[in-house]
Amino acid sequence: MLIWFLAAIGYVRAVAVPVERPVVNSATSASDLITRVLELAESEAKQVDGRQRVANSAAVLAVLGTVVTVSLAALLGSSGDSTSGSLSLNPQGAAAVQAACGSPKSVLRGRIEEATVNSPFITIKLDAGACLKKKSATLQLPRSSVSSILLEER
To answer: Taking CA 53 as the corner, what is the angle to CA 51 and CA 58, rounded to the nearest 5 degrees?
Structure first.
């Protein structure tokens, strides 16, 4: 995030901050005046271009950093906090689990994502074999299907 902020500052500096102007001697003729004005314009353009190169470099680094961060997040998954615990289900919850897993369960044990405890859907990662044969499963149950939540202390 910091590199994006620095890139933005670099662009603002490139276009909004005045450039240094060299001391201009008085022109002796019209063609001399035109030459000096063109030289000043070229000097200013070079300074702005240099500032933009710095800002462009910062933006490229920010893009690369973002790509790496998003890629790692996608590969590694959520690092949300989860705690061992159990969910006691009401009859609607038990029916939903039976529909998903094939067997009725009134209590589910596993790792509960703490951030979902007060959300409309609670996420619990069940151990291998608790729902699918030899595989772990993650269930998201409507909060209304859960009658109680037990979170083990860490």
So the answer is: 100
Residue 154 has pLDDT above 80, yes or no: no
Domain co-membership, 95 together with 34: no
Q: Which of 76, 102, 122 is the last residue of a domain?
A: 76
- pTM, to two decimals: 0.48
Residues 70 and 88 reside in one and the same domain: no
CA of 149: how far to CAs of 9, 31, 91, in Å?
48, 86, 15
CA dist 80 and 82 (Å) reads 6
Query: Is 107 or 27 the better-scoring residue by pLDDT?
Result: 107
Mean pLDDT of the chain: 88
Q: Are residues 53 and 109 in the same domain?
A: no
Check residue 114 and report its DSSP letter: G
The tokens 């680094």 sit on which residue?
61
Domain span holding position 105: 82-151
Nearest to 19 by CA among 35, 2, 43: 43
Q: Which residues are registered as beta bridge partners of 110?
A: 85, 126
Enumerate the β-bridge partners of residue 137.
126
